[in-house]
Structure formats: C-alpha cells, structure tokens
Amino acid sequence: MIRNLVQPALVLLAQMALTLALAPLLPGIVNKVKALFAGRVGPPVFQLYFDLAKLLRKGAVFSRTTTGVFLAGPAAAVAVPFTAALLIPMGAATAPVSFAGDAVVLAYLFGVARFFVVLSALDTGSAFEGMGAAREVTFAVLAEPALFMGLATLARLAGSPSLAPMLTAAGQGWRAAGGPLALVLTAWVIVFLVENCRIPFDDPNTHLELTMIHEAMVLDHSGPPLAAVLYGASLKLWVLGALVVKLCLPLRGTWWIDWPAFLGGMVLLAAGVGVLESIMARLRMRRVSQALIAAVVSGTFGFLLLLLA
C-alpha cells in the first residue's frame, strides 16, 4: 500500500518541481532564437529569472483609483496555471490529479484566470487598459471553442473524458487517426499562440497603442505584482505547450524515456515559436478573428472526421 502511495507522490513532486523551475526558461529560448535569426547575441536564456529576482526586490506602486481587486489578477495569473499543471500528464502517462471531466475543468480554469486579469485591468479605471481587456475577451470567445473541439476529438478517440487517457491515446493514435489529429494540432497551435500573446496574433514586447492586447492590461503593475504576471505568463506558456507536445508525443510508459522526450519536445516547441516569430509579421487585428475562426473550423472538422470514420 505504501508503494502505491509513494509513486504518485514522486510523480507529483517531479512534475511540479520541473514546471515551477523550468517554465521561465521557455520565453528565454524564444527570445534567444529570435536574436540569432536577427544576427544578434541577444539576452541570455535565463533573462526572465534575473528579471523576476529584480522585480521581487523592488516595491510596488499602486494607483489611487485601484482597490484590492487589482491584486486578484496577478494572484490568478500564477495560481491558475499552477493548478492546471496538476491535471496534465507531462513526462509520464498519468497526471498528479486525474478524474472524469478534468478536461472541461482545465479549459474553464483559464477562463477564471482571464476573468480576474480583466477585472484587475478594469479596476485601474484606465480607458487604455479597458481597450486591452475588451480585445482579450473578444479573442477568448473564439479560442475556447477551438480548444473544446480538440478536447472533444481526443475524448472520442480515447473513449474517456479524462486528460491523461485522452493525451495518451492521441500520442499513440497518429497511425490510425492521423487526419483528425493533424486538424486538432493545427487548431491547438493557433490557440497556443493566441492564449500566450505570441506573434502573429499579439506581441509581448510591443508598446504601440494600436496593436497591444494583453500587455495593455498589465501596464499599471510594478514590483512583485508584475513579477507574478510575468511568471504566470511563463507558466501558462508551459502548460499549454505541454498540451501541444503531448498531443504529438507517443508515450512508452518508462519515465527515463518519456521525461527526456517531453522536455526535448518543449525546447523544440519554444524554438519553433522563435523561428515563427522571426519569419512572420504580426497580423492585422481583424485577421486574428479570422485565424481563430479557422481554428474552430479545423477542430470541428477533426471531430467530424473521427466521428464518421
């Protein structure tokens, strides 16, 4: 009985330790690849760790118009991806927390985080941050159906509404259901880029009023709250990236193969994002909605194709 309890505990500790420690590495890899494409040395891959340490040592400045709601955004930005990471099997076939319907919980967890971040932006009373919040919510309305159609396809393939068997069946099902899985992968890659504010849909480094979406909502944060926002963004990048990687990764059931393969997949995904951002320009705002509608259609066709097969 003790052995049955020790193994899940070790999986939980390993997964959470690696998630918390390695998540800030992904933005560093993306920025390094972009710098190399531009012919520059660029910042070190550990730059976000240095930025977080610097921000945590600083004091925070709060507008007199804000209330306690203002801090709910940074708190949710960290707590929600951390909770979501417990539901996804990363380097192993099982997740630390798994139950029937956890796929639906995962999708709505990010909705909860978005709600508090938007609430925090509106609490500042700034029209500029309100504009960013409106854009964020508008695009989320289209991103969520694309994510759900992908989850529905995997649930149909696995015959289970739980994430662990769904992702396991997806990784091992490319030979039998390659077409539907390719359509789901297309939809999820678009959702991954939109939800993480990456080019060509958003730009985390922009400060142009006409193009800002997510960054417009966090302009008033400073010090430790800004560190929470940045760290939460890297956790979200890691969690949603894990979904994409596990969709493509066939599991072998042995930890010494699955964990290195998973971590290698995450590095390749971050490098791929860096390459994409180096060769593509940011889309016009109206094109973002069209791309998200294409993601919904792709996920829906994947589900129908699997249903009719």
UniProtKB/TrEMBL annotation:
- Where is it localised? Membrane
UniProt key word Zinc: no
Entry GO CC: plasma membrane
Any stretches that span the bilayer, and where are they?
68-93, 105-125, 137-157, 177-194, 226-245, 257-276, 288-308
Q: Which Pfam families match?
A: NADHdh (PF00146)
Q: How does it sit in the membrane?
A: Multi-pass membrane protein
Q: Which UniProt keywords apply?
A: Membrane, Transmembrane, Transmembrane helix
Q: Quick check: keyword Membrane in the entry?
A: yes
PANTHER family (UniProt xref):
FORMATE HYDROGENLYASE SUBUNIT 4, FORMATE HYDROGENLYASE SUBUNIT 4-RELATED
This protein is called what? Hydrogenase
Q: Which gene encodes it?
A: ehrB
